[in-house]
Structure formats: structure tokens, C-alpha cells
Amino acid sequence: MSAFAVTATDGAARAGVLSTAHGELRTPAFMPVGTKATVKSVDPDELRALGAEILLCNTYHLHFRPGAETIAELGGLHGFMGWDGPILTDSGGFQVFSLRHTITERDDDGVTFRSVYDGDVARFTPELAALIQTQLDSDIAMCLDVCPPADATRPELAEAVRLTTLWASRQRTAERAPGQLLFGISQGGTDPELRRRSIDEIAELGFDGYALGGLAIGEPRPQMFEATAVAADLLPDDHPRYFMGIGDPEGILEVIERGIDMFDCVLPTRNARTGTALTSRGRLNLRNAGVARDPRPLDEGCECPACTRFSRAYLRHLVNQQELLGHRLLTLHNLRFVLDLVAGARNAIERGELNAYKTAALEQLGAASEVP
Where in the chain is the domain with CATH 3.20.20.105? Predict the structure, then answer.
């Protein structure tokens, strides 16, 4: 029996509920990224208040610092970081393959690379990816995959598909934490034939959910959205669909419309740390001198701590002086904005009004233009 139930549809878009060992997740859902077992500068109670229901943590980084065994001794990720809701852990594959210069060997068994922390030689295999995520005790574990670059040749994409399937078949039979769900990942870039082949192979193995990997890594966005639509239509409709690595407002709405249920990205928190606020009227650069005496909140109607108490002028001052409060407030705001956007889309799907919701949001956003 699937842990996922679709509760409403609107065209290709879906609303649903995913049951996990630490509670239910309403979809579509955005996952704030807590790379090193923390969403930078935000505590778990604040994340709950913002509307977050699930977090993503990073297997690669936690494997090296502080180590999965240490986290296991301290109650797994939930006990370690004080978050009692669902957690998804990636496999570390994206980090390994995005740091290509560190790879020393890749074969059918796994991949050997040098750690970004100390340069020591390390190796990931599907079995180790499963073991680390078992020790982390996440609610959703991801299969180890090969993520090729956006400019990969077709033979390189085909090899990534082959290895990803091979590794998924091995990780599928590895031990898991009690109640832990396992998601398979499809590769193939924007090549329709290879993407179809990958999805067919991964779906035949049978997983609790399915992810689209190898997209949003630099390819033209029209091709990315087209590939998403094709892939989503091929994925099992009674399991959750996860687009790995998208978090801008336009992109979120586009992939939801194409049938995606879950997604993550560092964009909201990273933008906050560089002084950029996501607002209903586009991006606001707080380093802009025009904001220096602006008494308005970041976004009219937003109920986050930044907007209910502070002016743009004050937040600009904090950003320019590199005050930690500025980073925190912008992070709270950007996460609240994205989480509210997704909650609005979910409600619109339930009403059968996603197209109108998306059109109105994008018109107001100016397709992610910058606020003057």
C-alpha cells in the first residue's frame, strides 16, 4: 500500500498527503534545506511557525561532519537537531558529482573522491548511502545516483542512466531505518528517450516515491519545463514526484502545474544571506540605495517577523553592516514567502483554480523581475 494519496487534481497538478514516520506531509510541498542539520540561522520552532512541514538534510556533509554514527548516538537527526517533523536526506550523489574535480574513480561498484573538508580519499557506494541514511534515521532516504553536468554528451547521459539504475537496484535491497521511505531517482537530462528509459527502469524496481534528477543544473529553462512535463506524465501517478533543486517562485509554480509534488532549493536562504528579499512583486535588492529611507515593509500583507516589525530601510542597514539579525530576518521572510506561495497553490488545486492563481501570481511578480 502506497504511503501517498492524491486528494485533488487540477489538470496535471495534484494535491496530496504523504504519510511518514514523523507525520503527514501535505503536497505540493517545499522543503527548506538544512544542509548540515540546520536551516541557517532559523530554529525548528520558527520553521514550524513559518509553515514548514518537512526539511531536507545533506548526507554528504553530515557523513563527514560530525559523522552519521555520532548523530545516531544522539537520537538520529530528529533528536540531534530538535525537529520532530518529516526529514528527507539526499544520498550525497549530487554533491559528489557536482564537485567533479574531486572524483578519482567511478565504476559499477561506486565512486571514489576526495573530501572537500580535508582532501582525504573517500568512497560512496549504494550500500554506504543506505547505511548513512539509516543511521541518520530520516523519514525519506534517496538512492545514490549519477548527476551529469548540463553539457553532458548523450553517451555520458546514457552511462549516468545505466549506473543510476544499477545502484538503485542495490540500494533498494539494503537495510533501512524502521518506517524509512526510499525514493528512486531518474536521470537522462532533457533527452526524452533517455529520461523515459530511466523512469521505466526505476519504476520497475518499485520505490515509495520518484525523483527527477539532473535538471535545474544550467540547461535552458524552456527545455527543463518541457522535460518535467514529459517525465511527470511517465511517473507512477499513485506515488509522490520530487523535482530536485528548484525554489524560485516562477519555477515552483511551473513544476507544480506539470504534476510535481515536492521540491527543494537553497535559493530562499542563500538569497537572504546576500541581501535579496523575495516579494510578491519580485526580488528586492536591499543593497540598493533607493531603499535607504524606505519606511515600507518588505512585502505588504506578509506576516513574517521581518515585515510585521521592521522597515526596508532598517533591514538594508542590517544587511550593509553584515549584522546577523539581517540575515535571520531575511531568511524568515524568504522562507515564509515561498511556503505561502506553495500553500496558495495547494489550495488553488483543491478549488480547481491553479491556472488563475499561477497567472495572477506571475503577473504580480513580473516573472521574477526586480523590485525598483
Answer: 4-265
pTM for the model stands at 0.97
Q: Percent of the chain having pLDDT more than 90?
A: 98
Q: Is the pLDDT of residue 370 over 50?
A: no
Q: How far is CA 263 from CA 66, 201, 248, 274, 356, in A?
A: 26, 22, 11, 22, 22
Q: Does the pLDDT at position 246 exceed 50?
A: yes
Which of 90, 139, 145, 191 is catalytic? The answer is 90
Query: Which residues contact residue 119 at a Cβ distance below 8 angstroms, ignoring those fewer than 6 apart?
Result: none
For CA atoms 13, 14, 15, 19, the dihedral sign is negative
Distance CA 370, CA 363 (A): 13
Does the active-site annotation cover 90?
yes
Fold exhibited by the domain 4-265:
TIM Barrel (3.20.20)
Query: Phi, psi at residue 46, to the nearest 5°?
Result: -65, -40
Question: Which among 139, 191, 248, 264 is annotated as catalytic?
Answer: 264
> CB burial class (10 A; 0-12, 13-18, 19+) of residue 313?
middle
Q: Which of 77, 79, 85 is nearest to 23 (CA)?
A: 85
- Identify whether 261 is a catalytic site residue: no
DSSP string, 211-271: EE-S-SSSS-HHHHHHHHHHHHHHS-TTS-EEESS--SHHHHHHHHHTT--EEE-SHHHHH
DSSP secondary-structure letter at 365?
H
What average pLDDT score do residues 110-120 get? Answer: 97
* Confidence check: pLDDT of 183 > 80: yes
What are the tens digits of pLDDT across the range 76-106?
Answer: 999 999 999 999 999 999 999 999 999 999 9
Q: What pLDDT does residue 368 have?
A: 44
